[in-house]
Amino acid sequence: MQLDLLKRPDGRTAILMPSGFVLDLLTPDATDMPIEDIAQCLSSQPRWGGAARPWYSVAEHSVMVSHLVPPPLAYSALMHDCEEFLGDWPSPVKVMLDRDYVKQRLHPVKDALRRWFGFDDEVPAIKQADLVCMATELRDLLPPAWMDWGHLPPPHPDRIVPVGPDRACTLFLDRYKELKHLAQPGKAKPAKTVRGKRRTGAR
């Protein structure tokens, strides 16, 4: 049971995670957030706004990206979309809303996650691997369409076979446990934050 007799987080601006951890989105601090929260949420978030068939999650995408970068970058690659526990907005939606504005608003949340989980995803090799995954997903999971995808590299030769949300959650956690020795806590620059609280769970 979570108790705070002085101040309770506002349910209009704070997110309740599966473990009971509460993250205030206006003054985010991810300290003590369990990785299981990220895994469960990402495995429940569909890529491509749900248009991919079979159903394919952000967690599976993240695991794939982690395998397409040099080993020292694998942990950061696995975590590169972890803020999408808030939802995976398709890129055209971000462009419509102003991509720079969306990124600016989400930046404090992403930095809070970077500090706690200790990763740096602002690396060209990770961004390139992300695009390779996108091209591969288009080939294997999306219908043919008369669209210009000239900004994408060639897809990976291996085909994607989606595994569903429960298995995706397990794969993400297994990959995390394999790579967490590469974490560098406090990777992001410090920012003024208010600590999140939780009922149960551990990092």
Task: Please tell me about this protein's structure.
- There is one protein chain.
- This protein is mainly alpha-helical and 203 residues long.
- It has one domain (29-182): Hypothetical protein af1432.
- Helix content is 41%, strand content 3%.
- It contains seven helices and two strands.
- The protein has a two-stranded antiparallel sheet with strand order 1-2.
- α2 (58-67) runs parallel beside α7 (165-179) and α4 (91-97) crosses α5 (99-117).
Quick structural overview:
The chain is built from seven helices and two strands. It has helices spanning 35-44, 58-67, 74-78, 91-97, 99-117, 124-141, 165-179, and strands spanning 14-16, 22-24.
Comma- or semicolon-separated keywords:
single chain; 203 residues; mainly alpha; Hypothetical protein af1432; two-stranded antiparallel ribbon; 3% strand; globular
Strand order of the largest sheet: 1-2
Report the strand count: 2
CATH class: Mainly Alpha
Query: What global shape is seen?
Result: globular
CATH homologous superfamily descriptor = Hypothetical protein af1432
Terminus-to-terminus distance: 18 Å
β-strand percent reads under 5%
Mean of pLDDT: 89
Which segments are poorly predicted (pLDDT under 50) over 5 or more consecutive residues?
Answer: 190-203
Helix content, binned percent: 40-55%
Structure classification: mainly alpha
Task: Please give the count of helices.
Answer: 7
* Rg: 17 Å
